[in-house]
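Note to self: the last two entries modelled the partners one at a time, which told us nothing about the interface. This time every component goes in together.
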Amino acid sequence: MTITMPQLGETVTEGTVSQWLKKPGDRIEKYESFVEVSTDKVNAEVPSPVSGVLREIICKEGETVATGAPIAVIDEAGAEASAAPVAAAPSAAAAVSVPAAPAVASNGASRGPSGTPNAAELLRRMSPAVRRLAREHQVDLGNVKGTGKGGRITASDVLAAASEGPAAATAASIMHEAVRERAVTAAPANAPAPAGSGRSTYAAPVPGTLVPLSPARKIIAQRMVESLATAPHAWTMVEVDVTNLWAWRAKAKDRFQAEKGYPLTLLPFFISAVVASLKRHPLLNARFTNDGIYVEKQYNIGIAVGMESNLVVPVIRDADGLSVAGLAVAAGKLVEKARSGKLGPDDLSGGTFTVNNTGANGSILSKPIINAGQAAIVTMEAVVKRPVVIGDAIAIRSMMNVCLSLDHRVIDGTASNAFLSQLKGHLEKMGPAGDL
Amino acid sequence: MAVAPPASTTMNNVEAVRTTLYEALKSDERTLILGEDVGARGNVFLITKGFIDEFGPERIIDTPLAEASIVGVAIGMAMEGLRPIAEIQFADFIYPAFNQIVGEAAKTRYRSNGDYSCPLVIRTPYGGGVRGALSHSVSIEALFYHVPGLKIVAPSFPADMKGLLNAAIDDPDPVLFLEHKKTYRLVKGEVPAGHYTIPIGKAEVKHAGDLLTVVSYGLYVHQAIEAAKRLAGDGISVEVIDLRSIRPMDRTTILASVRKTRKLLIVHEDNKFGGIGAEISAMVVEDAFFDLDAPIRRLCGPDVPAMGYAATLEEEFMISTDRMAEAMRDLVAF
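The predicted structure of the combined assembly is written out below.
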């Protein structure tokens, strides 16, 4: 085929060959740029209208010829070029703005997908459908004869091979490996899993490490299981407005720390309110036995103290005999002993009810497990400023959630909610006017 | 003068639109038509010829050449309980109304938190191939299909015209109703009598096949069917889907077909860049990537500012049935 000088623009009548990108004997693919042509308006690479071999250069570099004059001869490959245009004539605009783009006709690139690989590439490249079907049907693509363009393997070819049976589905070829590799690295989460080949496409899992059980861990595990297995847990929660209490504590805490040497947290206020409430609702200060519900006479309040890998619940004995200040000192001492590992057996036994300050770690809602042998456990969650409706107004209040898990064998919701209401009432009544 | 709808149930698209409008005006006093030359002239394609005599100038309103006002007034009517059918004489003239359509009509329900809706139909003839030159040939769908709150339909069979126009009139929100002007008298078909609707957002397979899915709308649906019939003669089975509604778009029908054929050709007259085909293509790649056995192809109008008047330029712009058949054959062989 003789290639002529393209018309690079409506008013352009001639062009100059500025550079040959191929030399005689070179292989040229269709749409591959093979010569650079300049006019007074543009400088453009010209793509070949056919695939073949460059046989002859007619127009040498630097020569200017009229549009339509022969510039080269390309020996076409096969019959593919029969319908191809004679002139290499891309639209000027397309060729200038995207010099390397294939000549996809002047009509808005709508006559051919510019991303279509050439014949040689098509033999190697598999469409998404082909890859998926090959994987699903365990078809070795190396053994499939392609009937598509340029011998490309089509989805139908894969299905035909699959229906031929195991002869086509032999051991993995290099092609198959490539497909599998893509499946692992590139497939989205909803990609079809490989059909039951028994061969995982994923690498073996990286082993984790085993942390040995410390004696404390073993006891915690045992007690938790025991509690959950024996006591049917029910759970409930109330919201408490601690704005005034918070102000009280803020006002008093620096002086308290200076005088007593222990921090004044919200915990002693809370324990004080809990004890007052337990007195009105003694069934929560109790435990279930097969002979009956054993109601305690003492108010020994366990406080959960969490450490890095341990949890202990030291007990404030006869908490009903202590003021808020006394409770603060007692709790402070126990926490100190817990952190330094100096708690003795007496510190840890005899609890009748447990308070867990989960809010200290930022929790606003938790579902505690009852300390085995008690009737209930209550948590104090983090104090958070929230908009709250009071009457018909919205106010910013310091709010705290209080969560309760109860042994449903001992009490029911009515009793536990009465206890929580009482507790809420006590806490909300506490304010800066109070006496530590 | 009494205007009777055509007695025959075989109609062209002009007659289908005319019949539907007539029946709507007859059956619901809230409906009215407003636009340029819709009254005394009876619309440039004679769709509303004689309506003004039967329904009077209060319901068949000749407006000034002011598209923003046509749509703006219609929005007010729609919000206050009427069922206006606004006409933009040619789609090429719709630009002054863009703000009213996009900025007002499409947002009415959202902005009023559902207190107001805008049951408005905007009809307009679009498309080329009729020597309409720069100002009477344009396709406008891509300018509007980006807009949530706006429905766009573009039927091209008489029965679909009636069913979808009825659905558009009944719809509580604004609908842009596009009529390809070359199909007006070219396309004929059976139209059921009486009131019926076709749901907006449902495409239809107009020609069933196995090896390739062709999605189109408007004039090109007819050419695509013709090309598919030619290919069927050579034993090549191609499925042609008529989108009918552009927004909402019928993903289900498109995806089901592509999953079956594994190949997709999109044909539309509007230019390619950012066109309806871009959205269809993206949707199919997102949802059916692993079913595709060939690159998606789009056969579209060229990226030029307008359709030329010269016959050669118009021919170059429009896609011939031969080119469609060639593209189908090529993609099937891939």
